[in-house]
Amino acid sequence: MSTSVSSGPPYEIYAKDLTYKHNPNVEASLIDISFDLPKGPSRTILVGANGAGKSTLLQILAGRRLLTQNGTDVRIKDRDVFRQYPGGVTFLGTEWAMNPVVRGDIVVSDFLNSVGGYRHKERRDRLLNILDVDLEWHMHAISDGERRRVQLVMGLMGEWDVLLLDEVTVDLDVLVRDDLLTFLRRDSEERGATIVYATHIFDGLDTFPTHVAHMRLGSFVTLPTAWPFPNVTAEGLNTRLYSVALQWLKEDRTYRAELEKTGRKKRGPITSEVPSDSETFYRKYDYSH
Question: What is the pTM assigned to this prediction?
């Protein structure tokens, strides 16, 4: 399945001939990607194994990684994401919670007001209830999941046109996650906004997306495609997103195993009977017996 959702201009997100390497000496993280998404309301789920390129793609769309390749065109709201970045775009990723600044001894109410919470009081208060956040929490004394909730309040309290989410629900309990996804779905529909969401948690997501895409080793196997799929497709996929994702990921592992037979670096245990240098060293200085 490789049907594009393109309905012609105007598009909200657009990429053409996108290839990206983290440095010149490694394999490309993204390979010749071209796709587009129409203006919302739309909510696209990115499915793919670890290392498929989902996070890199979202970071590029967010303008956080510089592209130097000639001929590449990446746009949001018809504006170049590196030279004329558009307003109304919000990116939320997992690295935020590890920033030492947000782990300091600052009260949540002060933290939110420091980034403009007082300007978005109505949406801020709505999100405080949805995400079950205590304004008197101290950022250094709360759990990773609670800190993630504060991040989501901060990132979502201002209105956005395009929302890029990279695994930000991984720390949330199931109730808070469900309430958040309900809010995002309604917000997208009411304001005609666009969401692109990379996740590995598919339970409870069947009614959330309008489109689903499949990435493998830096490329799209299935371009963003209208969801739900027919009850049973030619590939045997059904309308449960968990089942679709599980089948795709199994196919990804099989595909990679075939590449390993023809020279791609193999994962898993080393099958050589000759001990590795590391094993030899640590065996020599093992005093546990």
Answer: 0.87
